[in-house]
């Protein structure tokens, strides 16, 4: 026992937490005895000093010296106490948060995909969580309570969309405010995905082989929401998403993706169309707990290897590059919709995701975005409104005017939706605030209803044009009519607060080749300390750079005449 006590005595010297537990041991007694001898020696030294001062006749100076020694001793003891106490907490925005929060890892509330025959299932599962500080919005005075977006600054020299201030909490507070359990999914509890290895293209159906060529009847049925559903959601061939399905990914990468549990921040570049934008202002906590994935094709990978000094073992800065092979579409824009809308299939164990288009630079911590746009609003899916257009019909005309898609395909899609009941946007649709999203950022929780929404949204992109702004409201309205759920739509100026838009690679290279220095972007994210609009706006005229239009292949869609509303089945 004496040996163990001695061992504990040594540990107490390092951690300062076990001295009381061994105070009655032999080691503790020796320590007390030694202190007695030290005090006795100190008293004798003070007496000798006092006697010497009396001998030289400087009694007043001796008193002052004694006071100085006593003050120094008291100061040293107080400093030791303050140092010991300050190591246990850190003050963030006048709110005490234990340092342990910064090292905690919050596990996923979604178990791995289970196989059910030839289908894959996504089921939310409740699990026990480790001990950690947790705050509830019900009993917590939020630091941003009462904050409102100020009116835009009047600046005749600067017109067009600009960022506006957004009130964020600290990263520690955001983590403490994370819900302990998954949000409830209205009606839908179990979502399965169709998988058919021997699929044959059906000329009477639209869509692609990757999407499974769902018939119009299957499309309509997918909006009849029930407790358990099986729907088309891409990846219809192969063993699992990324293995023989088209959009194929190496096994090592798939294993790593399955290990991502809590939050994934994702983006993609296909056709070498954009430059990699590196996230800024990311906390050490997020670097340790969130996954950052960039999906690229072989062409983009080759360019990154040759041009980026940061490339190292499939990583560029925070981004882990995943090379995708056997692309299912010839059009890079349509291929990019796979990771954008089907992240829940590529990351089956992730609880939350933030999608960022490759042209955007993330300049805020992703946990702050989750707290601000999901948890604070009690939302499960958040996307920004378009800065200018709110009506789908206007959006379609703008797409045609800009040459973003061939007019016949856009007209066919709009006429199809019109026959289904699509109407112009008006304030009468409130609480719906817009029919047109700015789809370059998606913040969402992975639960069955949000997974269904993005599956059906992807099916529309696969069936019609790849312009997801046109199909967004149709999918939203059909789901809302059945279960009362809809995405949260926030202001476009709030989106511009946490992302900065860059130029596409081809346009940037043209500017450099012509000797013109690329101007700084308009999206300078303001804070409560920085005034909005502090960066210089780009010139109003830009060189026109258009992508080549998508080539029609045997697996792509024909453009038949839109059916009349009566022939489309019950909605």
Secondary structure: helix percent: 25-40%
Overall tally of structural domains: 1
Between the first and last Cα atoms, what is the distance in angstroms? 79 Å
Read across the widest sheet, the strand sequence of neighbours is 9-10-11-8-7-12-15-14-16
Whole-number mean pLDDT: 76
Your description of this structure?
- With 571 residues, this protein is an alpha/beta fold.
- It has one domain.
- Helices cover 36% and strands 13% of the residues.
- It contains 17 helices and 17 strands.
- Strands 9-10-11-8-7-12-15-14-16 form a nine-stranded mixed sheet, with helices on both faces. The protein has a four-stranded mixed sheet with strand order 3-4-5-6, covered by helices on one side. The chain has a two-stranded antiparallel ribbon with strand order 1-2.
- Helix 7 links the parallel strand 7 and strand 8.
- Helix 12 packs antiparallel against helix 15.
- This is TOD1/MUCI70 glycosyltransferase-like domain-containing protein.
Question: What is this structure, in a nutshell?
Answer:
This is TOD1/MUCI70 glycosyltransferase-like domain-containing protein. By secondary structure, this protein is of the alpha/beta class. 36% of the residues lie in helices and 13% in strands.
């Amino acid at each position: 026992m004496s040996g163990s006590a001695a061992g504990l005595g040594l540990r107490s010297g390092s951690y300062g937490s076990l001295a009381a537990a061994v105070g009655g041991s032999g080691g503790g007694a020796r320590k007390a005895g030694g202190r007695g001898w030290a005090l006795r020696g100190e008293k004798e030294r003070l007496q000798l000093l006092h006697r010497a001062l009396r001998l030289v006749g400087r009694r007043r100076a001796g008193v002052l010296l004694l006071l100085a020694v006593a003050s120094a001793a008291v100061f040293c003891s107080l400093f030791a106490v303050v140092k010991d106490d300050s190591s246990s907490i850190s003050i963030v925005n006048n709110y005490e948060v234990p340092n342990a929060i910064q090292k905690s890892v919050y596990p996923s509330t979604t178990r791995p995909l289970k196989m059910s025959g030839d289908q894959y299932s996504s089921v939310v599962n409740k699990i026990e969580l480790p001990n950690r500080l947790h705050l509830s919005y019900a009993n917590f005075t939020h630091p941003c309570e009462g904050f409102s977006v100020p009116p835009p600054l009047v600046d005749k020299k600067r017109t067009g969309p600009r960022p506006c201030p957004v009130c964020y909490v600290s990263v520690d507070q955001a983590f403490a405010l994370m819900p302990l359990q998954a949000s409830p999914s209205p009606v839908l509890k179990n979502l399965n995905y169709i998988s058919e290895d021997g699929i044959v293209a059906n000329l009477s159906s639209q869509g692609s082989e990757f999407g499974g060529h769902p018939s119009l009847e299957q499309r309509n049925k997918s909006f009849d929401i029930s407790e358990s559903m099986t729907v088309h959601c891409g990846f219809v061939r192969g063993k699992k998403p990324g293995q023989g399905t088209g959009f194929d990914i190496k096994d090592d990468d798939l294993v790593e993706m399955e290990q991502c549990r809590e939050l994934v921040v994702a983006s993609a570049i296909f056709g070498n169309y954009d430059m990699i934008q590196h996230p800024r202002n990311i906390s050490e906590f997020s670097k340790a707990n969130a996954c950052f994935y960039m999906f690229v094709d072989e062409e983009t990978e080759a360019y990154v290897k040759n041009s980026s000094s940061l490339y190292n073992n499939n990583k560029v800065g925070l981004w882990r590059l995943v090379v995708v092979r056997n692309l299912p579409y010839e059009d890079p824009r349509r291929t990019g919709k796979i990771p954008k809308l089907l992240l829940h299939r590529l990351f089956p164990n992730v609880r939350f995701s933030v999608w960022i288009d490759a042209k955007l630079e993330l300049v805020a911590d992703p946990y702050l975005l989750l707290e601000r746009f999901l948890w604070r609003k009690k939302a499960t899916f958040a996307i920004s409104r378009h800065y200018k257009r709110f009506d789908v019909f206007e959006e379609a005309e703008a797409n045609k005017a800009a040459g973003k898609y061939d007019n016949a395909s856009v007209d066919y899609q709009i006429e199809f939706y019109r026959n289904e009941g699509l109407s112009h946007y008006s304030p009468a649709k409130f609480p719906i605030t817009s029919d047109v999203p700015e789809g370059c950022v998606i913040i969402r929780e992975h639960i069955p209803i949000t997974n269904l929404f993005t599956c059906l949204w992807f099916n529309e992109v696969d069936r019609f044009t790849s312009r997801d702004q046109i199909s967004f409201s149709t999918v939203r309205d059909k789901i809302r009519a059945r279960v009362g759920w809809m995405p949260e739509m926030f202001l476009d100026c709030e989106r511009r607060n946490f992302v900065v838009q860059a130029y596409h690679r081809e346009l940037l290279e043209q500017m450099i080749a012509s000797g013109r220095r690329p101007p700084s972007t308009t999206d300078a994210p303001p804070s409560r300390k920085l005034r909005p609009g502090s960066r210089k706006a780009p010139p109003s005229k830009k060189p026109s750079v258009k992508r080549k239009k998508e080539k029609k292949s045997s697996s792509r869609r024909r453009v038949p005449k839109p059916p009349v509303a009566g022939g489309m089945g019950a909605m």
